Structure formats: C-alpha cells, structure tokens
Recover the amino acids of this structure.
C-alpha cells in the first residue's frame, strides 16, 4: 500500500475519532466547564497519558516496529511471533508493578504535577488523587494495546490501531450523557471510570484483530533474551526523548496550576485538543505509515527509495498542515466560540482558549515535521539522536515558559511549546542532511513556495469572514453549524483552488500516489 493510501486510511479513522473527541469536549465544556472539576479530571487523565507516551506508544513503537519488521523479513513469522511473546511477557510484568506503585503514590505524584494548585483548599488535590487512582490502570491496558498495534501496523493493517481511540471517545461520551450524576464532580468521576473501561475495550479489540491476522500470542514467563535486551536498550533513549515532550506538558500543567487562575489548565487542554486535530489527521497518520515503510526500504538497501518516501511525506504533510495552522491562528476565536461556548463555558473561557490555540498553532507545521523526520532515525535504529534533540528542546521550552508566563499567562506557555517544537524540527532536519540521509529534492523545493502562496490567499479570505460570522457562532445550534460550515468550507475551498491554480497540487500527482502500491 502506498504512503498516501496508508496515511489516508489512518487519517480517515483518526478524523472519526477526533470528531467524536470534539463531541466529547463540547459535552464536557457544557456540563463541567473550565474550573475545579475539569482541572481535576484533566490532570488525572494526563497522568496515565504522560506515562503511556513515555513508556508505551511513542518509545515502544520507535524501537519495536523496526526490530519486528527485520525479524519478519529475515527470519519469518514464527520467529517474529516468538520475539513478540517474550516482549509481551516482560512488558506485562513491568506495567503491573509500575501501575501499582503509582496508584499507591498518587498523592505526591499529583502534587508534583500541579504544585498543589493555586488554592489553599485541599479538596481539589484530594479529588484529583481520587480520579487519578481510577484512571491510572488505563496506562497498563493501552500500553499492551500499543504492542499489538505495532504488530498490526507492521503487517500493513494500519486501520485497526487507528480505530482503537474511537472506543475511548465513545466511552467518554456515553459516560457524560448517561452516567454524569447531579453535579460536575459526579460527571468528572464518571469520566474517569470511562477512561479505564475504554482501556479494557481497546486492548480486547487489538488482541482480537491480532489473532485474526495470524498473530495469536501466548503469555509466557518473563525472561531477558538477547532480543528483548536489545529492544530495552533501544527503548530507553526513545523513552527519554518522548519524556522530554511529556516533561514540557508536565511543566506547563504545573505552572498553570500553581501560578495562573483556576480554569487555566482547562483552557490549555481545549486549545491543545483543537490544535491536535490536524496533527492527528496528518502528522501521526503519515509518521505511523512511514516508519515500517522506511524500515523495509533500508533493510533492502534502498536508500534512494527511502529518500523519495521521506520527501513525499514532507510534501504531503506541509501541503495539508500549512493552511490548517494558518486557519487556526487567524480564526481561533470564531472556532472556539462556535465549538465550545455554551453551558458552563463562558465568553471569557473562549477568549482565553483562543489565545492559547493561536499560539499552539504557530508550531503546528513543526509538530508534524517532527513526526515525519524522526522515523528517518528510528528506521536506522538510531534512537539516541532524537533524544538529544528533544532534551535540548525541552530545556529551551522550560526557559521560554519561565520567561513568558508572567506577561502572557497560558498564551506564553503555548507559545513556548510552539517555539521549542520549531527548534526541534530544524535540528532533526539539519542532522539528517549533514549525515547524508536526507535532502530536499527538486520537486519539494518547487511545491513549497506555491503552498505558502495558496495559504496566504486563504488567510486573506478568513480575515474578511471572521468578523462577519462571529456573531452567528455565539448563537443557536443551527446558526453555529451554518457559520462553522461557511468558515471552514470557504477556507478549504479557497486554499485548494489556489493550490491547484498555482500547481502546488495536481490531479495527476494525487492519482499516482493513490494508485501506487508502494515503493
């Protein structure tokens, strides 16, 4: 399957998940708002997500997928299965112990994440600890699911893992609609239970799909084989690299909870969720499909094919991300108002969230480029270089956080994240180029200026539409739907029309990529 087709499959299912995620966020904004209960739930939900990204999905996939592909290609399916069973046994043991320790130590962990919140009332910490103990088993469940996801991605069944997050959003929507209780605390508690229930369902879904794909794994007694030891050595630097990103989020949560008004954690969350939509649809989809493709091409000695694949991946993500980032920056307030401003979510909440969204979105192309450039290292079993770059970017982010928070509040925290992401992406590109592993080809150099020009034309139209549509976006549901459709539809139509006229995008190229079975 071609890179575009694989990415499109992942992107389409991610779109379904993100749409459901927006429904969930809109319901949460309506019934919980941005305050005591929402801050507590979001910290509790961030805790397992932090360690999941640190130890599971990002770091694990970066090390496991290339090794699994080499085993599958060179030694066959049975050797790949045996290797995976050894990994599953050790991973299960580590996760069970780690989950138990964190649940016991939830109080000091929550305090470290929030600085005790900006309040003398201990009830908020106590409620956050309660929710954290409910949500933390999700880490073990989703980490095991990520193992099966790596197997299925390597076998070309990208859609299975891409569909799994849909179950999370369905569980959270069900909880908030039918089990929310009489107040926002009960609603937040129902959300926490739904998180762990969704972990059970996602793991069951992935195990079932792996068995259907011929990968029926047995749980053996854990032991450190040579292959497992090699995997652990590769995971460690990748986990540190993923940890740098998570430390940035942790520092932002701590600073927002300790020094900014109540609700700031929620404002950052909603802004990040809106900004994550194009990242999930474009960057994660392309990055997920690119890693096994590069691994196979490099294992076969096809450096030229790998270079071509990475250039086309960058071309694809920038053609789609540049207009998305620009639209989120210039139309942040209309989008937040139309999607979130109702019920407990006030006009002031919309303004605070929109400022953070615009700042986050300045870094959107960089976030996506990191997803596409990093597989160039991981496919060569180099998990150390991205770590060094990520740690340097983490230090820069921390310095910018401390410099900007006092004058800009949560906008300063979001802007720091964007600037640090650009430093990370530029460093990865320069290192790959210096090593001779990557350079921009003529096709990409020709397309990028035209994509920038098409984006500028779209921005001009949005600046005209924003003040016209903003009053409608704060009105009834019907007016919101009409105004959002006009805003998004007109912006997308303007960009793609300009892109085709300027030949940044051509019908022939799209047809070639969609029909190609791989390279």
């Amino acid at each position: 399957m071609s890179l575009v087709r694989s990415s499109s499959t992942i992107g389409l299912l991610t779109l379904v998940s993100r749409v459901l995620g927006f429904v969930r966020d809109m319901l949460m904004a309506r019934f919980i708002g941005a305050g005591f209960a929402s801050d507590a739930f979001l910290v509790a939900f961030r805790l397992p997500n932090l360690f999941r990204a640190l130890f599971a999905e990002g770091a694990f996939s970066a090390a496991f997928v290339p090794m699994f592909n080499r085993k599958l290609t060179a030694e066959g399916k049975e050797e790949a299965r045996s290797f995976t069973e050894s990994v599953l046994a050790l991973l299960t043991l580590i996760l069970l112990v780690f989950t138990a320790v964190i649940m016991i130590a939830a109080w000091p962990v929550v305090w470290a994440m929030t600085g005790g919140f900006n309040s003398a009332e201990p009830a908020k910490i106590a409620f956050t600890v309660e929710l954290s103990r409910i949500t933390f088993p999700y880490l073990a469940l989703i980490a095991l699911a990520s193992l099966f996801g790596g197997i299925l991605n390597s076998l070309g069944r990208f859609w299975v893992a891409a569909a799994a997050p849909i179950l999370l959003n369905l569980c959270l929507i069900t909880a908030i609609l039918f089990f929310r209780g009489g107040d926002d605390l009960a609603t937040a508690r129902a959300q926490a239970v739904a998180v762990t229930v969704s972990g059970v369902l996602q793991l069951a879904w992935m195990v079932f799909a792996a068995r259907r794909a011929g990968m029926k794994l047995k749980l053996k007694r854990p032991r450190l084989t040579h292959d497992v030891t090699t995997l652990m050595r590769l995971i460690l630097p990748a986990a540190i690299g993923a940890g740098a990103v998570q430390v940035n989020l942790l520092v932002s949560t701590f600073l927002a909870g300790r020094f900014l008004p109540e609700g700031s954690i929620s404002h950052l969350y909603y802004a990040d969720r809106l900004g994550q939509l194009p990242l999930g649809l474009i960057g994660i989809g392309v990055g997920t499909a690119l890693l096994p493709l590069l691994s196979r091409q490099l294992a076969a000695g096809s450096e030229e094919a790998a270079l071509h694949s990475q250039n086309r991946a960058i071309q694809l993500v920038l053609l789609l991300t540049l207009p998305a980032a620009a639209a989120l920056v210039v139309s942040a307030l209309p989008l937040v108002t139309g999607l979130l401003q109702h019920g407990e979510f006030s006009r002031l909440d919309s303004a605070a969230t929109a400022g953070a969204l615009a700042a986050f979105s300045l870094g959107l192309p960089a976030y996506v480029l990191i997803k596409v450039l990093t597989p160039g290292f991981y496919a060569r079993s180099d998990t150390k270089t991205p770590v060094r770059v990520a740690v340097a970017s983490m230090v820069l982010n921390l310095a910018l956080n401390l410099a900007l928070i006092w004058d800009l509040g949560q906008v300063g925290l979001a802007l720091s994240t964007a600037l640090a992401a650009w430093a990370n992406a530029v460093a990865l590109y320069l290192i790959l180029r210096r090593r001779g592993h990557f350079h921009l080809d003529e096709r990409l150099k020709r397309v990028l200026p035209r994509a920038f020009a098409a984006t500028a034309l779209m921005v001009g139209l949005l600046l005209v539409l924003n003040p016209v549509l903003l009053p409608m976006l704060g009105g009834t549901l019907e007016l919101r739907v009409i105004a959002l459709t006009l805003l998004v539809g007109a912006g997308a139509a303007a960009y793609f029309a300009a892109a085709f006229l300027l030949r940044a995008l051509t019908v022939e190229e799209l047809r070639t990529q969609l029909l190609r079975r791989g390279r």
Observations:
- The CA atoms of residues 251 and 398 lie 7 Å apart.
- Residues 514-519 have pLDDT under 50 and may be disordered.
